[in-house]
């Protein structure tokens, strides 16, 4: 199962973490993993390209991705980052609605 943990404090998302594998299908055929990966990496790439920030990123080939956003962003840039990361969450929730036994999203403070 893919586990997505969204760290949100006072309405601001400061980080997210993804780990695990969906095991929906064999490697290379797993639509749930491919979808979740495309959504998360696309969002991180969009954040970097469109806002110019460099989030803290940790990843491994085993399916782990952790992304943290700076706390000291100006209001406009932080608003852009929040919009993009929330868009990612909407897409991941859409995957979760159809494939809930393969992906789980939780929020933590």
Any overview of this molecule?
- The chain has 109 residues and is of the alpha+beta class.
- It has 2 helices and 5 strands.
- The chain has helices at residues 31-51, 75-98, and strands at residues 2-9, 12-19, 56-60, 64-68, 103-108.
- Strands 3-4-2-1-5 form a 5-stranded mixed beta sheet, with helices on one face.
- Helix 1 (31-51) packs antiparallel against helix 2.
- The longest helix is centred in the C-terminal third of the chain and has 24 residues, at 75-98.
- The two termini are 22 Å apart.
- The mean pLDDT is 96.
Question: What structural keywords apply?
Answer:
109 residues, 5-stranded mixed β-sheet
Short structural description:
The protein has 109 residues and is an alpha+beta fold. Helices cover 41% and strands 29% of the residues.
């Amino acid at each position: 199962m893919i586990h997505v943990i969204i760290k949100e404090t006072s309405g601001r998302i400061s980080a997210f973490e993804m780990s695990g594998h969906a095991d929906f299908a064999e490697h290379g055929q797993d639509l749930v993993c491919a979808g979740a990966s495309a959504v998360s990496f696309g969002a991180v790439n969009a954040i970097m390209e469109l806002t110019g920030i460099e989030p803290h990123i940790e990843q491994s080939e085993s399916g782990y991705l952790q992304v943290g956003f700076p706390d000291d962003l100006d209001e406009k840039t932080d608003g852009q980052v929040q919009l993009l990361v929330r868009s990612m969450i909407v897409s991941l929730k859409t995957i979760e609605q159809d494939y809930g036994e393969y992906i789980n999203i939780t929020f933590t403070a």
